[in-house]
Specification:
Largest sheet: 6 strands, parallel
Number of domains: 2
CATH architecture of the largest domain: Alpha-Beta Barrel
CATH class of the largest domain: Alpha Beta
Distance between the termini: 33 Å
Strand order of the largest sheet: 6-11-10-9-8-7
CATH superfamily of the largest domain: Aldolase class I
Shape: elongated
Radius of gyration: 23 Å
Structural class: alpha/beta
């Protein structure tokens, strides 16, 4: 079992427990004979991008191991309105007990993938890549970041543990750019990347001086820069460090930001503001 499988199972088990409580699905138990079986199709009601198939499969199979699931589309596939994503067949009580958990998780993750795809398409033809942030739903980060990848985006750091990201509050507390970056460089191993957030061209110049001295950050995040300042930052940097634009990014602004020549555009909205993709499960 992979780490991804473990993450999916943990989330799905928690969601099922939340919905079923101690008594289970009292409606299905009251209305449906225990031996009755059913077949149903999970389909999208709107066009989008698929993500979270493993969550739906797990929801149905964890509810009853005899349930079979036929997968028609995989994560990253485009789905049309009315198109089937999977077909499920099993004990009717079990299928209905798992229905809402499967739909809730898949709708959320398909929504993230679909919005990500729109951003990726908006910057097509530029060098910029679309990345997510840590602005994720607590407990769902691994799944939401997988959904970003399904939509064609790339993942920023997963958490506080896998990369250094020096932000404005770090700078305020520790004494500025030089102290923060040199301190971080001395403290972490050679495989740990360091990113510095700057809020103006003056801080960028100080970061570039550290880069030239061999003590600089690997990535500089240009936080809430105007378009003209983004272009100037690209010109001053001349490829010496990866430049990431962040702040004020939406589908109306992302193309112009990409055209300044930055390498990465991080978008918190991919995970904190993605609308769900409307999915449904219907008996056949």
């Amino acid at each position: 079992m992979s780490v991804d499988d473990l993450a999916v199972e943990a989330v799905v088990r928690a969601a099922l427990a939340e919905d079923l409580g101690l008594a289970g699905d009292v409606t299905a138990q009251a209305c449906i004979p225990e031996a009755l079986r059913m077949k149903a199709v999970l389909a999208s009601r709107k066009p989008g991008v698929v993500s979270g198939v493993a969550c739906a499969v797990a929801a149905f199979r964890l509810t009853d191991a005899s349930t079979t699931v036929e997968v028609h589309l995989n994560d990253g596939d485009a789905v049309a309105a009315g198109q089937a994503i999977l077909t499920v067949e099993g004990p009717a009580r079990a299928v209905l007990a798992a229905e809402r958990t499967a739909l809730n998780l898949m709708s959320r993750l398909c929504g993230v993938a679909t919005l990500t795809r729109r951003y990726v398409e908006a910057v097509a033809g530029t060098k910029a890549r679309i990345a997510d942030t840590r602005k994720t739903t607590p407990g769902l980060r691994a799944l939401e970041k997988a959904a970003v990848k399904a939509g064609g985006g790339m993942n920023h750091r997963f958490g506080l543990f896998d990369a250094v990201l020096i932000k404005d509050n770090h700078l305020a507390v520790c004494g500025g750019v030089e102290a923060a970056v040199t301190g971080a460089r001395a403290a972490v191993g050679h495989l740990v990347r360091i990113e510095l957030e700057v809020d103006g061209l003056d801080q960028l110049d100080r970061a570039l001086a550290l880069v030239d001295a061999g003590m600089g950050p690997d990535v500089v995040m240009l936080d809430n820069f105007a378009l003209g300042d983004l272009s100037e930052a690209v010109a001053r940097t001349r490829g010496r460090v990866v430049l990431e634009a962040s702040g004020g990014v939406n589908l109306e602004t992302v193309r112009a930001i990409a055209e300044t020549g930055v390498d990465v555009i991080s978008v918190g909205a991919l995970t904190h503001s993605a609308p769900i993709l409307d999915l449904g499960l219907d008996a056949t």
